[in-house]
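Support request, please re-run this one:
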Amino acid sequence: MATAEPKRRYVQNSLESGQEQFVFLSPERYVIDAFRSILSQANEQGHYFSYVVIDEVHCVSEWGHNFRTPYLDLGKNAIEYTKTKSGHIIPLFGLTATASYDVLADIERELQIPDDDGNALVRYENTVRDEINYCIVEAPVNFEGKRLEARNVRNMIGEAKQRIVIEWLATLDNKLKEWNNKKVFNQITSQSYSTFLPEVEKQISYSTIDKYQKDKSDHLALGEVHLSMASGEAATVIFCPHKNGSHGVNDMKSIVIKLLPKLPVGYFMGSGDNNEKGKEIEEQSFKNQRAFKENKLSIMVATNCFWNGH
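Re-run finished. Output below.
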């Protein structure tokens, strides 16, 4: 609803008079008195809501405690200002594919869902993703004889992580060649089939591991091509905790460009500034995001907002 004034007024009038079937808004909108008044006026005219869907609900926990505090009141505000025709509390649907058990518990607490609420359901779907695998690499730091102030420690850890990222980038093409073969594929899918795939899905769709592996491999060119970032057949995202500093987006982007000058590199980050420079950064970030999705960038250096909520 962040549009030019005439269009915003048109949308607000449409909402107030019950002409909108779906309303997309940010948590911040709920804390604006003028918007709350529009919702109240819609109720007075006999217009109500059926449910509230919170997409990427893990942001309630991951962002609410840091820089977007309206997330913490999202459940309370949705219940208080988004009314149902029956007068019952409006149902909340939270959707996420990345929340840990701790984050789920925090979401439940911040959305003010009582522990004894028999209507509160956490539905677990199949999250087997054979195309996503993890390799945890140690980034050792020697603190002996060093100043252990918090800022100095953070910088030392950040610099150690940078070194590991640089080492990995220098050998990534070889690693892609190592991973893109039938043997590694069979190891990954065998483990996911035996350990993670729900029994009900085995009974309904995949009675044998051969059937499962065939389904997963039909769209892959295992061993047939050499995946390369230079050719656009593979890409890399480097996540940084913030935009500045020794392990921020700006510093890491400069290092990557210097290390791999032949590869197209982009960045994505919030500006935090409501000025021309800030708008320029955000505009370029979204251009880079589109280019990355269209396989025009080999490497994206980004904060986690590249995935969450954008």
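DSSP finds eleven helices and five strands in the chain. The chain has a mean pLDDT of 82.
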